[in-house]
Amino acid sequence: MLGFLTLAWDAFSPLSAFIGLSGIAILVLAVLGVALIPAFLRKPAILLGCGMLAAAGLYQAGQAAGAHAVFVRQSEAALSAEKHRADLAEIITGELAVQATADLVASQRDTANLKEVLDAMSKDPDRNRVCSTRDDARRLRNL
To answer: Which tens digits make up the pLDDT trace of 89-124?
Structure first.
């Protein structure tokens, strides 16, 4: 809503409104002020009022067309940026899927290796033999 109000304010021209209201005032004075304005000034006043209204309308139309062009450019830029963000998100999602698949394969491989080691240890007849001397074991525990 705020964007629309900003664009509406950009399209509005106070100068055009002033010229248009002045044109209306001159027309009203020329048409209704029969007693105030001499006859030789009535026709030029009507033409001046109509000309001012036409000029105000054209100026306002140009202002609105400029505001519309700015809106179109801003919309195209926003749409382009959104498409770029969507493309980047798609690329990142694809990379994450590949990485997750690689991580899963590595995890399964490590689990299989650990299972093989545990199976080998459980079947090893020398699994309970002493690996180091008593003094070395004591020193290692004290570390």
So the answer is: 999 999 999 999 999 999 999 999 999 888 877 777
Residue 11's alpha-carbon distances to 8, 15, 20, in angstroms, are 5, 12, 15
pLDDT at 127 over 70: no
74-93: pLDDT as tens digits: 899 999 999 999 999 999 99
pLDDT (average), residues 46-50: 90
In sequence order, which residues have a C-beta less than 8 Å from that of residue 56 and are 6 or more positions away? 16, 17, 19, 20, 23
Closest CA to 13 of 60, 54, 65: 60
pLDDT above 90 for 11: no
CA distances from 60 to 51, 56, 73, 74, 112 (A): 14, 6, 20, 21, 77
* Three-state SS at 133: coil
Q: What is the CA radius of gyration of the chain?
A: 43
The amino acid that residue 17 corresponds to is A
Q: How far, rounded to the nearest angstrom, does the alpha carbon of residue 99 sit from its chain's CA centroid?
A: 29
Q: Considering only CA atoms, which of 28, 26, 29 is closest in space to residue 18?
A: 26
